[in-house]
């Protein structure tokens, strides 16, 4: 499964699934498949009544958010966000990458009654952004990848907070309390695993703990779902409370399944949208707001805020700890790839209007597509510059001079 862990393959699976979903949705079988995806599967078990599409976006996608939370906790504890000095630049850049796209969206949709869609262009897809960097960025220094990863993780933290606070309907406090109890028990139970215990390999003494963690994790998801908070937040909570070393091993175990199954399935079902047969002028302001705000807003927001942060980080002697402006621009282009989280927030923001959800989905796909093409070109140019500079610093000696 090594290749499935690769960032470039993960991005490839995601892109293929999204394109395939959009293509099939516009074939003769498309309407039937869209209907089937939205058909509610009332199992009669514990009051769960979700469509196939929602079982993926509310259920399986919680695994993806669980892994994001583990990465976030690691970065905050021992990684590149564990001090103010390290976190300042990516945090400022991430803030710019949220505020500016949201502002552009609100400006383009003012008076339309569609202001609720402002969170859609604020997200960055970690898998896609790192995948494009891996494919086209041979020679790019590690510090640039670290900056992109830190920015994307913080961006996802903002997205998680947005989902938790802005897309919670009629919260049921008793179920929030039950979820808090089961999540606490999950965290405590995870600490029963010895730091070096290979429980995922199946040694019998640790299987009861593993089974208890699974039961408590499912219970936390169930109570979160009943509480009115979006169920994917359960994955975030569990990832944050789990003991760090067992969480790292769990992340390693689940990552291939997230890359090869969870994210592609979500991308496929989210992209099941029939392209509307209307003139461009008849598309809703939400479509244009997302289409412009995602690639352009991210580029402007991250670049301006990142450049400001880089200037602030100058030391008294004149040297600076920040990145070069060209590197910040390159990361800003990659930040415009919204995809997974943007698709989810589009579905949440316009849940009451199927037509606007479809247009928002198309806008996310097109806007992310523009960002992919632009960032691939910019990353390729920047990587070539780094390779050329490395070759100049370390020229190969001519045989006759050896």
UniProtKB/TrEMBL annotation:
The keyword Zinc does not apply. It holds the Pfam family Na_H_antiport_1. InterPro entries: Na/H_antiporter_dom_sf (IPR023171), NhaA (IPR004670). The keyword Nucleotide-binding does not apply. GO terms for cellular component: plasma membrane. It is found in: Cell inner membrane; Cell membrane. GO terms for molecular function: sodium:proton antiporter activity. GO terms for biological process: regulation of pH. It comes from the Bacteria. It is a multi-pass membrane protein. Keywords: Antiport, Cell membrane, Ion transport, Membrane, Sodium, Sodium transport, Transmembrane, Transmembrane helix, Transport. It catalyses: Na(+)(in) + 2 H(+)(out) = Na(+)(out) + 2 H(+)(in). The chain crosses the membrane at residues 52-72, 84-108, 114-136, 148-167, 173-193, 205-223, 229-245, 257-275, 287-313, 325-350, 362-383. Belongs to the NhaA Na(+)/H(+) (TC 2.A.33) antiporter family. PANTHER family: NA(+)_H(+) ANTIPORTER NHAA (PTHR30341:SF0), SODIUM ION/PROTON ANTIPORTER NHAA-RELATED (PTHR30341). Na(+)/H(+) antiporter that extrudes sodium in exchange for external protons. This is Na(+)/H(+) antiporter NhaA. It comes from Cryobacterium arcticum. The gene is nhaA.
């Amino acid at each position: 499964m090594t290749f499935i862990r690769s960032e470039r393959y993960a991005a490839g699976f995601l892109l293929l699934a999204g394109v395939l979903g959009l293509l099939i949705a516009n074939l003769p079988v498309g309407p039937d498949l869209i209907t089937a995806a939205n058909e509610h599967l009332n199992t009669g078990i514990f009051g769960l009544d979700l469509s196939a599409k929602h079982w993926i976006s509310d259920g399986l996608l919680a695994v993806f958010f669980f892994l994001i939370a583990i990465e976030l906790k690691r970065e905050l504890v021992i990684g590149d966000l564990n001090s103010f000095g390290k976190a300042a630049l990516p945090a400022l850049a991430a803030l710019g990458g949220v505020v500016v796209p949201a502002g552009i969206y609100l400006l383009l949709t003012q008076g339309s009654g569609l202001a609720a869609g402002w969170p859609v262009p604020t997200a960055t897809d970690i898998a896609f952004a790192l995948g494009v960097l891996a494919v086209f960025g041979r020679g790019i220094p590690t510090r640039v990848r670290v900056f992109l990863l830190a920015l994307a993780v913080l961006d996802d933290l903002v997205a998680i907070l947005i989902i938790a606070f802005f897309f919670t309907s009629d919260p049921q406090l008793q179920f929030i309390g039950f979820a808090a109890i089961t999540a606490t028990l999950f965290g405590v139970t995870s600490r029963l695993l010895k730091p070096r215990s290979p429980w995922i390999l199946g040694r019998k003494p640790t299987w009861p703990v593993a089974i208890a963690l699974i039961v408590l994790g499912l219970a936390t998801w169930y109570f979160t779902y009943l509480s009115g908070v979006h169920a994917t937040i359960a994955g975030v909570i569990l990832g944050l409370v789990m003991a760090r070393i067992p969480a790292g091993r769990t992340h390693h175990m689940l990552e291939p399944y997230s890359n090869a199954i969870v994210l592609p399935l979500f991308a496929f079902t989210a992209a099941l949208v029939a392209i509307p047969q209307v003139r461009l002028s008849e598309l809703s302001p939400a479509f244009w707001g997302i289409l412009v705000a995602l690639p352009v807003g991210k580029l402007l927001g991250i670049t301006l805020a990142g450049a400001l942060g880089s200037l602030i980080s100058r030391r008294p002697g004149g040297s600076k700890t920040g990145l070069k402006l060209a590197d910040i621009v390159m990361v800003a282009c990659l930040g415009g790839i919204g995809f997974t989280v943007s698709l989810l927030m589009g579905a949440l923001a316009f849940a009451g209007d199927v037509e606007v959800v479809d247009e928002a989905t198309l806008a996310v796909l097109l806007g992310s597509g523009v960002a992919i093409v632009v960032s691939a070109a910019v990353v390729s140019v920047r990587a070539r510059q780094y390779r050329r500079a490395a070759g100049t610093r370390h020229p190969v000696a001519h045989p006759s001079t050896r």
